Amino acid sequence: MYNTQISDIEQSLSHNQQILDKKGVNLGVTGGTLGLSLFYYYYYLYTKNNEHIDTIMHHLNKAFEGVSSDYKGYFIALDMMEIVQFLYFLKDKELIDEDINDYCEGFDDWIYKFLELKIEEKEMDPYGGIIKVGTYFLERSRDIEINDVLDRIISVIEEFSVKEKDDGNEISFQYNFLDKTCRELGKGHGITGIIYFLLRVYKQGFFQERCKELIIPAINFLLKNKKSNGVNLFSSDIENTSSYEYSNISYGDIGIGYTLYHAGKILENELYSKEGIEIMLNISQFRDDTNKKIFDANLIYGAAGIYSVFKLFEQYYPHESFTKASKYWLDKATSFNTNNTKWAGFKTFYNGEQEELQLCFDQGICGIGITLMCSELNISPDYLHFLNYNFT
């Protein structure tokens, strides 16, 4: 059904790959060179052409070369974390059969230093701060001992926790994000994102009692802020009673419902899972026929990401509402390729003046193409792993 669009995206990526491959551009999966590798992994599955394995490795080598050259990206540590994450991905997909630990160890010291910097800055953000580092070391736990670094990270989370009641039954977290105090509720940068990380730590068997002592009162606080109706049942932050009139992977109720559902499964608490399902059912009714809230097809802010999460959630809890929502948002994503652009007719709305973002995984056509290929192949959207939706 989407053969033409997928082909057009591949041709655009092939013709413009130098924008992501050139020195000075981010190297990771979400915003850089490795997004091309990820695309060609799925293109290899889609075409059944083994030649594309060479393309996967070509862009992986470009990422390694970029680390050792005159790096000018956002922050080298963030790209290193995504390089390691991608190596484990390829290992799991059996495209790498050698031991990758030697490659990964070369990055560990950088990541430790980055952690200390973020602790000093009091930045706990899941996408670029302390929680991001914690996610990296959960991946590294396959090959190295991580108890000490997780102990350090959880200690910081405990330090930044704020009792919302004297009895300690409700807590929130107060920390810095983009040079401001963050009091958001959602998964992208807020309380839910921290709960989600702690759930992963708990599930992997680390510091379970300490995690539980943080997770349960944080969920209590989150649920206290749940409203009875609206597009979203949660406001955007603690101090603001207004809520988003939309939802996507980073903002709104999709991330909250997804997290609470898994909290119930991991902690064996049926109430949490029921709350998660209720939230997801409510936000599954969200539509935007006139493009006033969702402006493009990309993964992180656009229609492809909304489709992907509902498609994934159908696997956990089959329901007609999720089936209809996923179909609506996939159709929506494919309807955005009518622009007069060299990006296969697509155009990213936010930060659209940056050419690399038109191509990259999280905001550009790499992610859109991957979404369409997985839909055609009828396989799980496991690419969401790179956008911190790891329970696939």
Detailed description of the structure:
The protein has 392 residues and is mainly alpha-helical. 56% of the residues lie in helices and 3% in strands. Helix 5 runs antiparallel to helix 6 and helix 5 (76-92) packs parallel to helix 7 (130-140).
Shape: globular
Query: What helical percentage do the residues reach?
Result: 55-70%
| Rg result | 20 Å
Major β-sheet, in short? 2 strands, antiparallel
Number of E-type strands? 4
As laid out across the biggest beta sheet, the strand order is 1-2
SS-derived structural category: mainly alpha
Relative strand content: under 5%
Poorly predicted spans: none
- In DSSP terms (H or I, runs of 4 or more residues), the helix count works out at 16
Give the ordered list of helices and strands.
HHHHHHHHEEEEHHHHHHHH
- Overall pLDDT, averaged? 93
N→C terminal distance: 25 Å
Helix-strand layout with pairing:
Blueprint: H1 3-16, H2 18-21, H3 34-47, H4 51-67, H5 76-92, H6 101-121, H7 130-140, H8 147-160, E1 161-163, E2 171-173, E3 175-177, E4 180-182, H9 191-203, H10 208-224, H11 253-267, H12 270-283, H13 303-316, H14 320-334, H15 355-359, H16 365-377
Antiparallel strand pairs: 1-2, 3-4
Helix pairs in contact: 1-16, 3-4, 3-16, 4-5, 5-6, 5-7, 7-9, 9-10, 9-11, 11-12, 13-14
Can you describe this structure in just a few lines?
This protein is globular. By secondary structure, it is mainly alpha-helical. It has helices spanning 3-16, 18-21, 34-47, 51-67, 76-92, 101-121, 130-140, 147-160, 191-203, 208-224, 253-267, 270-283, 303-316, 320-334, 355-359, 365-377; strands spanning 161-163, 171-173, 175-177, 180-182.
